[in-house]
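New to this. Comment on this protein:
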Amino acid sequence: MIPALDVESIYEVPLRYHQAGLDRQILQAFGISGVPEPDLGVWEDITARLMAPEGEVKIAVVGKYTGLKDAYKSLDEALVHGGIANKVQVDIEWIESETFEQEGRLHYLEGVNGILVPGGFGERGIEGKIAAARIARERRIPYFGICLGMQMAVIETARNMADLPDSGSTEFGECENAVVGLMTEWEREGRKEFRDETSDAGGTMRLGAYDCVISPTSKVFGIYGQERIRERHRHRYEINLAYENVLAKSGVIFPGKSPDGFLPEILEVPDHPWFIGVQFHPELRSKPFDPHPLFASFIEAAVAQSRLV
């Protein structure tokens, strides 16, 4: 009889089943013998960091689907992994992005040590996400924009740093300065893929793993420790490189691009403690025993911010 007892964290499960003898019973059932004891040191370390953190940080996730948190399950776990890497507990404040489209709601972000704006589709709540990016930038709170969250950071900085007030995305309608627009072509495994405004939406996303080349002088290079990375994507819209120079003059750079240099993959505001946006989804590559470097660095920046309060 093997009990399946409730545990504080799912990452305790391997330890508890081993203590109950599940692995030995399975080996016996299949007639396998002579197997050495498993090394569960990595799981013991993970559990110890979770059960006895040395501090805590509060992260605001400003999203469109916070009423159904399972929509952000990978993101939730990746933040936990960042906490494990820094030996801190990560408390997540789930905030519906439409909240910030109303006056007098900025108090929802009081006391947070980091702001993360995740991906999403459609126009609902967009101005709230842009407002969250602006708060993070102006108050020098660590900001992590993922996919749509990166695009919102570009729109915010274009409007308020580069003096392009009518900046927006063609996903939400026509605008004078389309700093975000529909991708028309990209390279995948040595071949070109194409799409235009008349293409069907279904099956036309840029999906899967793609390479990204990082500038060696950037903050992100220091985080990854390498010039070429490979990350997973899921999007139709992309940053418009026609605005790269005007954004750079205002203090916004794109230190990571596709190998052909056509698609911006990473945004940075160098004159900020930690303001980074990525077009890809790093949460999908994070593991408890190998936290994604961006999440580990984001939580590290949040810890530093917590000590300033």
The chain is about 30% helix and 25% strand. The two ends are 51 Å apart (CA to CA). The first helix runs from residue 13 to 20. The longest strand covers residues 206-214.
